[in-house]
Design a protein that fits this description.
By secondary structure, the chain is mainly alpha-helical. It has helices spanning 10-31, 33-44, 48-76, 79-97, 102-119, 121-131, 136-147, 150-189, 223-253, 258-270, 272-277, 279-285, 288-308, 313-340, 345-374, 377-396, 401-407, and strands at 415-423, 430-438. Helix 3 (48-76) packs parallel to helix 5 and helix 4 packs antiparallel against helix 5. The longest helix has 40 residues, at 150-189.
């Protein structure tokens, strides 16, 4: 397969497999509950708080599991973890289809939280980061573009299955899909890193050490720098989750109909996809350590527009907010590798996932609590814009890619015998010299 690299490279097969499995996993484990809740309430007599409380419990477990999952990924890679996660997800979704008691339902969501930690974005990103260097942004973009369609695909499909077979039949169908599609793709396509097949990242020809450094040879990580980065993404996640959850009532309060407000909210979600298409261009145009601060600043500007502007600038702000959210998903995946290398990628990205997942859970509740004290939605959105601006300021302070490269152990700087290609990260120009070069992980690019 020559999806990204233009050559026969197993990493391209991994991109295609993860594009499929992430779409299915997000669609079944994250989005389907939105359609299943009402028929479950009607049949079982449960309150909405109980039905969505199970989902919230699963998200909390996912956040707590993200840190040990990250450590596992550093030591063992994603193949076994994601395969086990798919098997567990299929089994637990089947068990969900049989549930009759609240206690069993909550236990199932505890298990599904562990499964989500094992199969959603973090392990997929960690796997791709081992297989791609220059092509890493495009690989991540390809997978997230596909997975970004999960709600568009699975919400109507779930509704159709419920209307024909009931909510239990719909869950049986999704359990079978997880078992028949995601499990074999994870088990038979994924590999820990290119060295498993005698290849180099991006499929480049070369000789020398192939594997990333072992866990015990980790590069040092400056605690303050990473804490600032984690705080920045957490603040951004609070702002984005709060704005998304309250967008429809905010617009309705300004006199827009509920149907129009829902349409605008859908516009925000839709804009995540074209936003992600801009990521490789941003990586070419800006220095790598400036991409994330610019995206946080764009998020702040979007929130300010939503807070203060009237149509058509209001719609511009909503669209920019969606595009910035889609881009920040990719930026979070690349920031760890850019700033700290790959030696502790799984552990550090797990910490980021923990912080952002808890922040997303707190955002809507916190915004509701502040709505009265601050005096309405417009002041609240200005406050959220200030949080995003703080995130932009915090994200500027971290070390840049050259420092991360210097911190990378020498054992992971393979000597590549090839027509050496030196690519300028800003202009995209390249020069070639026939030589053998000592290569510290080069700047990721499209």
């Amino acid at each position: 397969m020559r999806l990204l690299t233009g050559r026969a490279f197993h990493g391209d097969r991994i991109v295609a497999a993860l594009a499929v499995t992430e779409t299915i996993s997000w669609g079944v484990l994250y989005y389907a509950i939105g359609v299943l809740a009402l028929p479950m309430e009607r049949e079982l007599g449960w309150s909405r708080e109980v039905v969505f409380g199970g989902f919230s419990l699963g998200l909390l477990v996912q956040a707590l599991a993200s840190i040990p999952v990250g450590r596992w990924l550093d030591r063992h890679g994603g193949r076994a973890l994601m395969s086990a996660g798919s098997l567990a997800a299929a089994t637990l979704v089947w068990a969900w289809s049989q549930v009759t008691t609240v206690a069993a339902y909550l236990l199932i969501w505890i298990g599904l939280g562990l499964a989500m930690a094992a199969v959603l974005y973090e392990p997929a990103f960690a796997t791709l980061s081992r297989w791609f260097d220059r092509h890493r942004p495009r690989a991540l973009m390809t997978v997230t573009l596909a997975a970004g369609l999960a709600s568009t695909i699975f919400l109507p499909l779930t509704e159709a299955l419920v209307s024909h077979f009931g909510w239990r039949g719909a869950l049986l169908a999704w359990a079978a899909l997880l078992a028949v599609v995601t499990l074999p793709l994870h088990a038979f396509v994924l590999r820990r890193d290119p060295a498993d097949l005698g290849q180099h990242p991006d499929g480049e020809a070369g000789v020398g050490p192939l594997r990333p450094p072992p866990a015990e040879a980790r590069a040092p990580v400056r605690g303050g720098d990473f804490a600032g980065l984690a705080a920045a993404f957490a603040l951004s996640a609070v702002a984005a989750a709060a704005a998304s959850a309250h967008l429809v009532p905010m617009l309705a309060g300004r006199g827009h109909s509920e149907s129009a407000a829902a349409l605008v909210a859908g516009w925000m979600g839709l804009m995540q996809l074209p936003g992600r298409l801009l990521f490789p261009w941003l990586r070419r145009t800006l220095r790598s350590d400036r991409v994330t601060p610019v995206l946080f600043a764009a998020q702040a500007a979007a929130l300010a527009l939503v807070a203060l502007a009237e149509p058509p600038w209001l719609w511009v702000g909503v669209g920019l907010l969606g595009a910035a959210g889609g881009l920040l998903t990719l930026a979070r995946a690349t920031e760890v590798a850019d700033r700290h290398g790959l030696a502790r990628y799984g552990a550090l990205s797990g910490r980021l996932a923990f912080a952002t997942t808890l922040a997303r859970a707190a955002g809507p509740i916190g915004a509701a609590a502040l709505l009265g004290p601050v005096g309405g939605y417009s002041p609240l959105l200005v406050l959220l814009a200030a949080l995003a601006a703080c995130a932009a300021a915090l994200s500027v302070a971290g070390p840049t890619t050259p420092q991360a490269a210097r911190d990378t152990p020498a054992s992971y700087q393979p000597r590549v015998a090839m027509q050496a290609r030196h690519t300028d990260s800003i202009t995209g120009t390249s020069t070639s010299t026939p030589t053998t070069v000592a290569s510290a992980a080069p700047e990721p690019g499209p």
